[in-house]
Design a protein that fits this description.
single chain; mainly beta; Porin; twelve-stranded antiparallel barrel; two-stranded antiparallel sheet; about 10% helix; globular; disordered N terminus
């Protein structure tokens, strides 16, 4: 049943992809983003939770700030889809450099209890970029109500018209998140981005400094290197 579901998802994704240029041409105000990432680890709400080897795909559709996205994570080691997310969101420019975003996310785990999340974030883009996110995980059969605070500061270093280097550092704090409270990690990270003619390319390398050694339910937040590459296309 699960293999059939995954195949149907793949077929549906291909079908949607074939229609995207026609949709985008007919409605220029609609923004569509596709991305596929090969990641060394599964990173959820700020810190590494999964083992080595993951493929993560995302489709996002946005019109005048109101949008939806579909995201899934495939674990190469376990040879299974570990998570499928569906969300609706609204984002708005508050000033020339400041923007806000609200998201409602449904996280489906084929082998676990699903999560329902309300996420609110604010982003500043200037000489230095900064972001702060608040995510509330609603109580379910497995967990109590939990909160995740995520923050990041970074700076862009344009190499030329098509290439950019971004260096940053992020930190995350949780409160009753799957039974844990406290700082989970601080992660310095370097990201490279290339704007291509047909596809855009990105790559990142980060070093997680973890602080939760004896978690209540989730894997420990360890000191770990993580990296990934992404191919993306916007219409």
């Amino acid at each position: 049943m699960k293999q059939g579901l995954i195949k149907k998802i793949g077929i549906t994704t291909l079908a949607i992809s074939s229609l995207i240029p026609k949709i985008a041409k007919a409605q220029e105000e609609v923004k569509i983003d596709l991305s596929s990432t090969i990641a060394s680890h599964y990173i959820a709400m700020g810190y590494i939770l999964g083992g080595i080897g993951h493929k993560q795909d995302c489709i996002s559709i946005n019109k005048n700030g109101l949008g939806t996205f579909f995201w899934q994570d495939y674990d190469f080691e376990k040879k299974e889809t570990g998570e499928i997310d569906v969300a609706v969101f609204y984002e708005k420019n508050l000033t020339k450099k400041l923007s806000g975003k609200v998201e409602g996310i449904y996280m489906h785990y084929p082998k676990g209890d699903d999560d329902k999340v309300l996420k609110v974030g604010i982003t500043y883009e200037g000489i230095v970029n900064a972001s702060l996110d608040f995510a509330n995980f609603f109580k379910d059969a497995e967990i109590e109500n939990g909160i995740v605070f995520s923050s990041k500061i970074s700076k862009d270093f344009p190499l030329n018209e098509k290439n950019n280097l971004n260096i940053g550092i992020s930190a995350d704090y949780v409160n009753k998140f799957y039974g844990d409270t406290g700082f989970t990690n601080v992660t310095p990270e370097i990201m490279f981005y290339h704007e291509g003619k047909k596809l855009d390319f990105g790559a990142y390398v980060g070093i997680q400094i973890g602080f939760i050694n004896e978690p209540a339910m989730l894997p420990a937040a360890k000191n770990q290197l993580n990296a990934g590459i992404t191919l993306s296309k916007s219409f």
